[in-house]
Amino acid sequence: MILKKVSPPSLKREKLNGKQFLKTNRMFKSMKTGVLAAILISTAIYANAQKKVAEGTVTYIVEYNPTEDQKDAVAILPTEQKVKFNGSITKMEMEQGPASIIILQDVVSNLGLVLIDVPVAQMQFAVIQGKEEYEKAKANTPKFSDFKATGEKKMIGTYNTEKYTYKDDKGGAYELWATTDVELPTGLAGESFKDIKGSLVKYTTFKQGIKQTLTIKEIKEEKVGPFKLDVPSGYEVKTMEQIMAMQGGGE
To answer: Of 231, 199, 233, whose CA–CA distance to 216 is shortest?
Structure first.
């Protein structure tokens, strides 16, 4: 018995006329374009999927809007601010003249600790922020409310953001931009903003009575901390009023 060799259908070659060739070529190019588009879209979705960052450093650009009485104080404040965070506790470090200052805060319990080190004077002070201090500071700060998503979208840096509007109890109107591209610890931007869907990329708030707008410059996921709110050995505990009196030459 003689077997006749037959090429598999997928490998069988047929001569195409000019029209068939152009049609097939166009179909192949279209298929390649479609596959490429699918790859790009899938990559974009993957790249912009929400990423949870529980530990690291956020760098903010800070713009101040001081009153006339606050201008001298604002002149020495930094225009870039780095906030380290590990879980619910944040840490900020700054230099004020000869003093090195560390500010620690638990954004969930709202308890805090300020450490002031003045090496040239061999002085170390600690200011504890308890519930009473927090409530006192909160009472003197505008209260934000009426947060509304507008549906307006724009890119800020590498983040897809949505615009929200909000108000304060003193008649002020504001806007913020939030992203769902990355998830930062709840309360990082402050208790007033904890119910916003997403992480705040740009927003306006008040700190020590000074109006300021913060914009995220960089989020770096890295090992920091852990941080504690315990007063280190060698630090003298004082109130913020006592520290302010010392700075002003008071008693």
So the answer is: 199
